[in-house]
TrEMBL record:
Ranges where the Helix-turn-helix type domain occurs: 5-44
Chain coiled-coil ranges: none
Lineage, highest ranks first: Bacteria, Bacillati, Bacillota, Clostridia, Eubacteriales
InterPro entries (alphabetical): HTH_11 (IPR013196), WH-like_DNA-bd_sf (IPR036388), WH_DNA-bd_sf (IPR036390)
Name of the protein in question: HTH domain-containing protein
Pfam families: HTH_11
Length: 58
């Protein structure tokens, strides 16, 4: 599974904003990889940041 897919799936399952470290822990992915994927997902406008350092699905 692609890292971006894992992040989107994790955010969808939890249903509330999460920190990058929490996403990495739930998805069993390295935090550095999650940070890169989050940056890409924000550029694609698939996720949003409702408050600093927290991310949620749009």
């Amino acid at each position: 599974m692609d890292i971006t897919e894992a992040i989107l799936k994790t955010l969808k399952e939890v249903g509330e904003p999460m920190k990058a470290g929490e996403i990495a822990e739930k998805a069993n992915v390295d935090k550095k990889e999650v940070d890169k994927a989050i940056k890409a997902l924000k550029a694609e406008d698939k996720i949003t940041s409702p408050k600093r350092c927290f991310y949620a699905i749009k």
